[in-house]
Design goal:
Largest sheet: 12 strands, mixed
Structural class: alpha/beta
Number of helices: 12
Radius of gyration: 21 Å
Shape: globular
Order of helices and strands: EHHEHEEHEHEEHHEHEHEHEEHH
Number of strands: 12
Distance between the termini: 23 Å
Length: 348
């Protein structure tokens, strides 16, 4: 594995009419970032130079036409396309959506082929990316198809980690998706991620109930008693330190989350509303469960402030830091998990 300062961070550009380019450029204006990693932005150097000039940013860009040309200590921009693109900051544009996906799929291919070490994705618009060639709700579903493993949305900020049993599912369909198989798979994924990605030896995991007051013994829904509890019991008996289901309303308010290494929410907003409230704009969306590392900021395209130069880049910078930390943690885990007898046999 590479040393931290040599890690190649691939970056997909996201929606060019949003704040993605701005937060990327602001992140790497700090020269110290280039001592930590070598960024490669999958886009077009002329377009990024235009955005840089428009926003009066100073990050020096280095255009390349193939990954082998990247230079350590530079902000490399791999020209994924040549033609110009008309930009209208803050506007939803299907053409811009196509370029967002061209950047993302090119970066994913490079990740699969080990041309980059990890991937950080800038925000996309889930509506304008849809086409005959790309029919996925977002980044995570595509990565789940292209990479090995089972993807899981894991929101992280310092020691606060929130995983989801279901992510982009309508609220009225959540209960239908909750099966013992899904619950076991997702929690085992979180457990393994805590061990190999965050260095937690014996993780304690809390699970939030689907219904108010955990169903009140079936008075407010039976899913917690009939689906969640049996699945958690089975996991606990096999050695996973999983607890719950806990009533979600008071769990964060009384700081119960601080007692656990991860919290598992049953649906999207149940987990992300408290997470974003507590992470203060510095949260990171990590795709756990895959054989490669991918992170993203915890915000969207923010059309309402795009092109104004006022976007906060803290979450994107944290996404880069987190990806590098996880990459190094995996390298350490791989090293300590090697069978010493096999190593000795090879030496003989």
């Amino acid at each position: 594995m590479k040393k931290a300062e040599n890690i190649i961070v691939g970056i997909s550009i996201g929606d060019l009419n949003g704040i993605g380019s701005e937060v990327i450029l602001k992140t790497f204006e700090d020269a110290r970032m280039l001592e930590l990693c070598t960024p490669v932005i999958f886009a077009n150097v002329k377009i990024l130079s235009f955005i840089k000039k428009t926003l009066e940013l100073t990050a020096p860009l280095h255009g390349i036409d193939k990954i082998e040309q990247l230079v350590t200590g530079k902000i490399n921009v791999l020209n994924v396309w040549r033609e110009g693109v008309d930009l209208n900051f803050g506007q939803n544009d299907d053409i811009v959506g196509k370029y967002a996906i061209k950047s993302f799929t090119s970066a994913t291919k490079a990740l699969k082929e080990n041309q980059i070490d990890l991937l950080v994705t800038a925000p996309i618009n889930k509506y304008n990316i849809q086409s005959e060639e790309f029919k996925f709700p977002g980044h995570t579903d595509y990565l789940n198809q292209e990479l090995e493993g089972n993807a899981l949305m894991f929101m992280v900020h310092d020691n606060l980690r929130v995983g989801l049993l279901t992510d982009h599912v309508p609220v009225n369909e959540v209960a239908k998706h909750l099966t013992e198989k899904l619950i076991v798979q997702k929690i085992e994924t979180i457990k393994q991620s805590l061990i190999q990605d965050f260095g937690v030896n014996k993780p304690k995991i809390a699970v939030l109930a689907l219904n108010p007051h955990a169903g009140d013994n079936g008075v407010i829904g039976k899913e917690d008693d009939e689906i969640l509890k049996p699945a958690l019991k089975k996991l606990f008996e096999k050695g996973t330190l999983v607890f719950g289901p806990f009533a979600a309303d008071g769990f964060f308010g009384n700081s119960q989350y601080e007692k656990y290494d991860a919290v598992v929410a049953t649906y999207h907003d149940q987990g992300l509303i408290p997470f974003k409230t507590l992470s203060f704009g510095n949260g990171v969306n990590y795709t756990a469960g895959l054989n490669k590392v991918r992170t993203s900021p915890d915000h969207g395209t923010a059309y309402e402030i795009a092109g104004k130069g006022i976007a906060d880049h803290n979450s994107f910078r944290e996404a880069v830091y987190t990806a590098i930390d996880i990459y190094n943690s995996r390298a350490d885990y791989k090293e300590i998990s090697r069978n010493p007898l096999k190593t000795k046999e090879k030496q003989l």
